Amino acid sequence: MSMAKSMSLLWGTGSPPCWRVMIALEEKKLQGYKRKPLSFEKGEHKSQEVLEINPRGQLPAFKHGNNILNESCAACLYLENQFKCQGNKLIPDNPAEQALMYQRMMEGLAFTDKLNSVIYYEWVVPEEERHDSAVKRNRTDLTTELKLWEDYLQKVAAGSYLAGAFPLADVIIFPNIAYAFRFGLSVGRYPKLAKYYSLLKDRPSIKASWPPHWLASPQGFDILKDL
Amino acid sequence: MSMAKSMSLLWGTGSPPCWRVMIALEEKKLQGYKRKPLSFEKGEHKSQEVLEINPRGQLPAFKHGNNILNESCAACLYLENQFKCQGNKLIPDNPAEQALMYQRMMEGLAFTDKLNSVIYYEWVVPEEERHDSAVKRNRTDLTTELKLWEDYLQKVAAGSYLAGAFPLADVIIFPNIAYAFRFGLSVGRYPKLAKYYSLLKDRPSIKASWPPHWLASPQGFDILKDL
């Protein structure tokens, strides 16, 4: 527990990259770290406090002593490697499982990009640059991506997680999938994703790090309902 | 050397993700793997041969036995972990070096995205959706990104590599930087990037994997010359 005292996290509620780091910290039994929620809406991710740790002005901004890890995959890899014998083992030794884990983990970033392209289109693209054709293409690309993951889950043994017993791939992927359902993804059309979601949502590391504003307003959105 | 015989790589010349995997294979002394160059221009990355390995229809498509690793960072992490005692050690043990290595490695993907947004704008964005304001913003974002890396290199000890003695971060980052200079980046305005480039370009693993079509036509482009 004492190691966690030298850790600090600046984070924003509901951000998949922040959530990943929080899940990894729970999995490695590193509770008790300092953390401070910041508001994206108020632009606090561009504050001096963040920029000193993360010059990109993004959250998370994570420190372990003097070591800085702002990219969520980097932070997760580091935590697993530095705390191998503490909490749950997140990188499998078996070569086939390890390959699948790394592959899915990194594909998770493409998934996040495609989600963001749809969900944050109007937030990111200036009004005069918006096109219905781009919106439509982004939605098609996200549908293709979702079907890919539905297919990946179809291929793994029933009831198991993405690449074994909750390794790093799930830490990276779960927030994407929770996000997709929060934004209205159809349980009927994506039954494997829905099953994965319901299998993992009550896992202690995930429950402990659940986005507070989702608890405060459980009602989500319907942006993705027709995908 | 025998392990390399069970490896195969479908790749495209000049693609940074493909190049990364090839550098990592050289660093781990895994020469002798099967490889087949495919043409992006002819759309061969969307061929059945690729789709069977990489359903995203992207290169690289890499196999080690039955293990599939298409995401470049995933392939590099896997190769280092599976061949720890062979060739060069790519992940440092020292916690501070390891943190910096993972952080820069993952930031390298943001660098690639920003390069692609400028270099491939017309290739990716349909004509009726193009905007001068978007082109300008993408160029500004890339300039900010390049200055960030110039600054990172300023902060490391003179003459050293990004995060130590050629660990994984350099494997991921070098192709980005080579790409930037290939597309006309100013040596004068980015002296640290230029120094990094010239320090690494003759490293055996990089020389052995240098994009063949760059050798065939050493003249680059000037898309980035004014950044």
UniProtKB/TrEMBL annotation, chains A, B:
**Entry keyword annotation includes rRNA-binding:** no
Q: Where is the GST C-terminal domain?
A: 94-219
**GO molecular function terms noted in the UniProt entry:** glutathione transferase activity; maleylacetoacetate isomerase activity
Which GO cellular component terms are attached?
mitochondrion
GO BP terms in the entry: glutathione metabolic process; L-phenylalanine catabolic process
Q: Which InterPro entries match?
A: Glutathione-S-Trfase_C-like, Glutathione-S-Trfase_C_sf, Glutathione_S-Trfase, Glutathione_S-Trfase_N, GST_C, Thioredoxin-like_sf
> Which residue windows are transmembrane per the record?
none
Which keywords annotate this record? Transferase
Kindly give the Pfam families that the UniProt entry links to this protein. Answer: GST_C_3, GST_N_2
Q: Which SUPFAM superfamilies match?
A: GST C-terminal domain-like, Thioredoxin-like
Asked if the Swiss-Prot or TrEMBL record annotates the protein with the keyword Transferase, the reply is yes
Chain ranges of the GST N-terminal domain: 5-87
Q: What is this protein called?
A: Glutathione S-transferase A
Tell me the gene name.
GSTA
